[in-house]
Amino acid sequence: MDDKEQGERPAPTIGSAARYGEQMTDNMELFRHAAGAMVREARASASDLPHGLPDVASTPGQTALEAKNGTPKAFAELCVQAIGDISPAEARTAVARYLEEWRAA
Fold first, then answer.
1. Cα–Cα distance for residue pair 28/94, rounded to 1 Å
2. Contact at 8 Å (CB) between 72 and 98?
3. What is the tens place of the pLDDT at every residue in 33-50?
4. Which helix (H) or strand (E) holds 77?
5. pTM here?
6. Where are the domains of the chain?
7. 10 falls in which pLDDT band (50, 70, 90)?
8. Distance CA 101, CA 66 (A)
9. Are 98 and 69 in contact (CB under 8 A)?
């Protein structure tokens, strides 16, 4: 049984190393494209999050929250844009918690 039959690979050449590098670059580009599409799709699935949320403070406590984090609508818009760093579920949870805090203020 020779070396190839035992599963040993031939020594790399400059040409094979260059092709491998090109393949890795192509694979990374495909991955970036796929990841970007997944993030866009996740953001689209949560795009309804800001709709119908308060956009004006009506109490001093809400005014203080608005100065710190924005209105619930603005906060939700930022959470949707953060999807990719956070999940859609985390965005929805953060908005729900902020809305509770806003209503209590």
1. 32
2. yes
3. 888 899 999 999 899 999
4. helix 72-82
5. 0.69
6. 14-104
7. confident
8. 11
9. yes
